[in-house]
Amino acid sequence: xxxxxxxxxxxxxxxxxxxxxxxxxxxxxxxxxxxxxxxxxxxxxxxxxxxxxxxxxxxxxxxxxxxxxxxxxxxxxxxxxxxxxxxxxxxxxxxxxxxxxxxxxxxxxx
Amino acid sequence: xxxxxxxxxxxxxxxxxxxxxxxxxxxxxxxxxxxxxxxxxxxxxxxxxxxxxxxxxxxxxxxxxxxxxxxxxxxxxxxxxxxxxxxxxxxxxxxxxxxxxxxxxxxxxx
DNA sequence: ATCAAATATACAAATATTCATATATTTGAG
DNA sequence: CTCAAATATATGAATATTTGTATATTTGAT
Lengths: 110, 110
Fold this sequence. Notes:
The structure is a homodimer of 110-residue chains. Chain A has 110 residues and is of the alpha+beta class. Chain A folds into two domains: 1-76, Winged helix-like DNA-binding domain superfamily/Winged helix DNA-binding domain (Arc Repressor Mutant, subunit A, Orthogonal Bundle); 78-110. Chain A is 67% helix and 13% strand. Chain A has helices spanning 4-16, 19-29, 35-42, 46-58, 79-107, and strands at residues 33-34, 62-67, 70-75. Chain A has a three-stranded antiparallel sheet. In chain A, a hairpin with a 2-residue loop joins β2 (62-67) and β3. The longest helix of chain A has 29 residues, at 79-107. The termini of chain A are far apart. The mean pLDDT of chain A is 92. The A-B interface holds A 1-3, 5-23, 60, 76-77, 79-80, 82-83, 86-87, 89-91, 93-94, 97 and B 1-3, 5-23, 60, 76-77, 79-80, 82-83, 86-87, 89-91, 93-94, 97. The first copy, chain A, binds a DNA duplex (30 and 30 nucleotides) through α4.
């Protein structure tokens, strides 16, 4: 229906489009983490973490390493950290714009 | 349920997670375009373009300018172009990795 | 005032995602 | 071998997104 490449890119962004998956990825920027680590850091149940990790895995956004019964996850591409950082800048701009707009609405007497 | 900021970021990435919306954004990197321009360039019907533009608008990813009966769309933040470019690099890495993997599968005789 | 062009919105069926709950699988320790 | 810890998967109901079709709105020209 669409070009495969665009479909592929859309899948990638869709994979980033979930709050818990974003928090997981932010954790992984700092270095690899086991499922238990993530579970503890995020305060969510094991199944939820595994479910979301599975999605990131199938989209090739994260990679794994097994050690005993633990599975350690890490970002597949360091550029992803840059991408998330760049996204943060965009959000900041956006928030600043929104603030400025609200400010103007509040102070304009027309 | 989740932190508002993470929810907000997720909304942003979700907005990018659609093939047609990605193609639209790629067009807009080159400069502002009217709905008709986009419709012609992408070969899709008017309604679909407007629908997807509406989503990009509500997520504050694009801005508009009216001129007569035409509405011109442009990226709200130039950083978005950088983000899409960075994403492209990540996809390329991924595709190269996948190719290398297939190559190895094909040439290994174990 | 009327018309046509350009754009936006409404609606609903099809499809996909989310998320909680339950169950499986894998691995190392004893 | 048995058990417990760690992780993964299955299932399904609730919710959200997609997408085609129809209709509405806005604007400039005549």
